[in-house]
Amino acid sequence: NWDSINIEIAIHDWTIALSNKTPTEAYCYFSNFINPLLDAFVPLKTPKTISGYPKYLGLLHDRLKRFHNMAPNCDSTHSLRPASSSLPGIVDSNGSILLTNRDKASAFSRFFSKVQTPPMSSPLPLPNPSTPSFDIPFISIGQIVSAISQLVPKINGSPDNIPNLVYNKYKLSIAWNMTISAPKCTVLHLGRLKTSSQYILNGSIITPKKIVRDIGIFFSDNLHFEHHINQIAKKARSMCNLMLRSFLTTSPSIMLKAYKIYIRPLLESSTIIWNPTAIGLTNKLESVQREFTRRVLWRSGLPYLSYTYRLKRFHLETLEFRRATNDMFFLYDSVHGFVHFDTSNFYSISPLTRSLRSAHSLRVGLPYVMPSSFSTCASRSLTLWNSLPNPVVTMPRISYRNTIKKTPTYTVGSSRIKL
């Protein structure tokens, strides 16, 4: 009766029972528990020959030798040893003989150790608190998941669901029996309030930092992206130097194609998050493309041209224009439902109360007054989006993007770069 055996073993709290025992004592305890259980629920039959056993029993006999070496002088070891005249075995549901009596302990230990059934009761007394025991929680997984699910709606105050993301990862680690690596975790305090709170994970104090990197972006405690811009500009400039040293060609088209593939994506990754509004940071990003086009012009043996004419000759746009274009694309996708996230803290649809010929019904407004030193995708594109004609904002997605690219006045109101 496999169900009854499963229930009897599952309700026994093995953690408490074996916590203070040596390997020899644990083996004896398990053997004394298993023997009467097998006598009660497993019928026995005497086989005629040993040839009827499955082939994989040789592996089980090797495991049994290890058990015997761990407890060679144990009485339970001899009680599990079968008689030389006959080998009793477990009768399967189809009547075939599977294992010897000695193999039962090893097979049952392996089988029931994989049964994911939490202990329902403890037949043994609880240990003394001063007695060392295994460091395991006494709360079931269901209780933890239930408590977390009740906390999530109360603390979810950020538009990008950061608390939900953290707790979902924690629940996933519990469900898959994976531990979160404490050395890879950091604490980032946002805001001007200085706190001395310490956070502990798995007994280790999580180190607080002023700058952390997540999904390829450096976030600082004041949510300024100056450090991130300095890092990507430095990396892009070093890659420009490496590429120009590696290529022997003097063809501008080949070098520009390599620039578009390997270097420019570094300067445009996730720009809707960190697109700067400060003049100094904007010029620092633009200086990478400005210097690269100047070196390509010199290497090709062409006469010197200003940055504006170099862009026209090489058919390039300024990085500022491309970032503004990405903002306008993302705002269109958000308003029309192509991307799904909570927009209540970013913008709200605010059509005018009175109709105007140049107004459209998809005008957006900010839910709060934002400081001049901060910006979002909606705040940067607010004026330009609201000034677009109604036929433009209601275009299909591809047509809208082509129109925005061909009309710079729809994207950048006034340039802040040094040409």
Describe the structure.
This is Endonuclease/reverse transcript. The chain has 419 residues and is mainly alpha-helical. It folds into four domains: 2-112, no CATH class; 141-220, no CATH class; 227-316; 321-410, no CATH class. Helices cover 49% and strands 7% of the residues. The chain contains 17 helices and eleven strands. The chain has helices spanning 2-10, 14-18, 23-41, 57-70, 75-80, 101-112, 141-155, 162-175, 226-246, 252-268, 271-274, 279-299, 307-314, 319-335, 377-386, 390-393, 397-406, and strands at residues 44-45, 89-91, 97-100, 186-187, 200-201, 204-205, 207-208, 211-214, 217-220, 348-349, 364-365. The chain has a three-stranded antiparallel sheet. Strands 4-7 form a two-stranded parallel ribbon. A hairpin with a 2-residue loop joins β5 and β6 (204-205). The longest helix is centred in the middle third of the chain and has 21 residues, at 226-246. It is elongated and about 95 Å long.
Structural class: mainly alpha
> How many angstroms separate the termini?
85 Å
Major β-sheet annotation: 3 strands, antiparallel
Beta-strand share of residues: 5-15%
Question: How many structural domains does the protein architecture include?
Answer: 4
Count helical runs.
17
Give the beta-strand count: 11
Arrangement of strands in the largest sheet = 1-2-3
**Arithmetic mean of pLDDT:** 74
Along the chain, the helix and strand elements come as HHHEHHEEHHHEEEEEEHHHHHHEEHHH
Tell me the overall shape.
elongated
- State Rg: 35 Å
Question: What fraction, in percent, of the residue positions are helical?
Answer: 40-55%
The unreliable regions are 46-52, 74-89, 112-137, 152-162
Organism: Pristionchus entomophagus
Protein name: Endonuclease/reverse transcript
